[in-house]
Amino acid sequence: MRLWGTVALAALLSACSGGIVPPEAGVSRAPAPSPAPAPRDTPRSSLPETPVHLPARQPTAATPLAAMPALPVPASATTARTTGVVAGPALNTLPIGQEGAERALAAYKLSCTSLQRRTDSTGLTQGADWAESCRAASSWPTRDARGFFVRHFDTVQIGDGKAFATGYYEPEIHGCRERRSGCEVPIYGVPTDLIDVDLGLFSDDLKGKKIRGRVEGKNFVPYFDRTAIEQGRLDGRAPVIAYANDPVEIFFLQVQGSGRLRLPDGGVMRIGYAGQNGRDYTGIGKLMKDRGLLGPGQTSMQGIMAYLRQNPEEGRAIMRENKSFVFFKELTGAGPLGAMGLPVAGWTSAAVDPKFVPLGAPAFLSMDRTDATGLWVAQDTGGAIKGANRFDTFWGAGDDARAIAGGMSARGVAWLLLPKAVVMRLTAAPVTP
Q: Which ranges carry the Lytic transglycosylase MltA domain (predicted)?
């Protein structure tokens, strides 16, 4: 489903985002014992080492554009339509750069066919509304990408337009396909005894609700929590698809829900979300903040990771308070994949709440930092990405992406790009919640 999860502080302090992970994902692994010395005949260069990562990227400040005047948001609002829609600024007045427009056009080409088939939960559009721009995108020259958006779209503001953006990325950590000294943290596939139950089959009152668990005797019980799994309860119940050398890195990879393992031979194994144990997610960042464990400058992803490594026993106990556990599968082909089942792209894709932004639609963010300002295409969702004007920006893979996403926390204003006919229809008369 999604490259889940948010790396930025907002997600770490609550639930995981968006990013390439489903809403219930976002778990951590307790630290493994110190690895035994490498066998004498094993070259040290063939063993994975704990990577050294760049600190959170310090942003270049920017001044966001002013939001459009809007009516107060009704307390009962649950979608973009009921929150209130006002016309935004003319698209040709917004500071859309050439590179950003080209990336957004490529992403829109990829998404727009699916966008026409999806049911828009925002209440703003119908599938047919996107057909004309989708046809045009297929042959539109890249050199005039900005002209494409100006020609086919106008902007709208949802509610007061006040936007908050975090960041996520595709982690790359050291790992091995087989267990070896220094590479001993198991990465599990889906257990054979994990069962999904659709409660709606038993009662109309429970329609849409599901639970996960296992059968024990004649009873259906919750699945093993993370502590039990770390203590070996999955032995014989779940495949081990790979091993990692750093349990803290695995924690953050699970928060993201998808990532890359850099293998000893230089190859790469991509893994993605395959399932979850059904237990509730607890954000350990919030626990650490509430307990005064994170001082000034430590509230980024990098600061949290440093604390966990410096205090392994305490970190183990904190992480075990999060009972949720994510299972993985090896990924092949294009990726990572977002909630639309399509590849997401760094500096272009964003996770959103689909009740407020149509999945596949473009949006323009004017934020208080330059890297977050520009065109983004909604191609993903996330458990912590809820409400109007909430965006989780995707930055790709590698240390540069990690450095940006790890400290991404931007505020400003958001405008959705909708087909011109839709904007005319929505703004022709006051919206009645």
A: 172-329
